[in-house]
Amino acid sequence: MTTQYEEYSIGIPGQPWNAAQKRQWLAAQSKKRSYFDDVEQRLAALDNTTYEVQQYGVLAYADLGFSDYPLYCVKVGTFDKDLDTILVSGGVHGYETSGVHGALDFIEKHAQKYLGKANILVLPCISPWGYETINRWNPYTIDPNRSFYNEGPTDEANLAMKCADELGLNIIMHIDLHETTDTDNSEFRPALSARDAIEQDLWEIPDGFYTVGDSARPQNDFQTAIINAVKQVTHIAEADNSGKLIGSNMLQLGVINYDKKLLFLCGGFTDAIYVSTTEVYPDSPNATPDVCIKAQVAAITGALGYVLAHTLS
Q: Where residue 71 sits, what CATH number does that domain have?
């Protein structure tokens, strides 16, 4: 898609961005919604007899003309070292709204059902600056979801990994909540092309829900359980004419795999046996943003149901 690459407003086609062009990109960003109103206030309203809300870090972006963003995790009930731990993460890409609100809805409406069955840790919004400015990257034009490795380049990833690691508990399942929007093609892929001077070949946006398992630990039946739960809420993405989704072979309806550790994805930073990354498409003519939030919740509860039945019982 050469025209999209050449028409991006920042940079010179064929040349990666320099520091001045990255600053130009940052200067063009603005706050479009409030993390403090949409996320922090909902966490503050939780019943502290059932939930423990902890601040696990802060993103110091006030000097960049924005805010310093406190980062929160939620523990459901009292953690028991003899129970396995479930990790739910949202908002690694802050602009992917249903991941954040799906995590919050799960906390408020469903998480208490699992008291005494597993330790449940939720990181509802890993990238609050991205949430407020509706961005995939952080202010330094770095994608947090390619940064989950030791002493990586983003505080978003480093602080989330530290939070989970300091529990000292066995994380058996990690579900990471994502979505794809039309802005992936209108803004974020063109920006990536311009930043790196690498033309993007992949522009497909699957219409419907799908999951990304880990090729090192695929757990096909686990992925099937997620798909079956979400099917009750919204449609599942079909393969393209070559039998693929976003360039990857579809292994079963709505399921592809990536090597998550190799790609430094959020879904790969633990050694959990059961790992899945969700993807929904709120711009679909067959879905709505609210349906996508419900699909994220269904994915979490479907995943938990499978793990409880097969491992924790």
A: 3.40.630.10
Neighbours of 153 (CB within 10 A): 16
Q: Which domain holds residue 257?
A: 2-312
SS3 of the chain: helix, strand, coil, percent, to 5? 35, 20, 45
Mean pLDDT of 117-135: 97
What is the pTM assigned to this prediction?
0.96
Give the total number of structural domains in the chain: 1
The two structure tokens encoding residue 193:
């092309």
Quick one: pLDDT band at residue 203, thresholds 50, 70, 90?
confident
Alpha-carbon gap, residue 196 to 64, rounded angstroms = 23
Q: Where are the alpha helices (DSSP H) in the chain?
A: 2-6, 19-27, 35, 41-44, 97-109, 128-133, 155-165, 183, 189-196, 220-230, 289-307
Question: What's the CA gap between 65 and 313, in Å, rounded?
Answer: 50
Query: Is the pLDDT confidence value at 6 over 80?
Result: no
Rounded distance, CA 60 to CA 140, Å? 12
CA distance linking residue 225 with residue 174, whole number of Å: 14
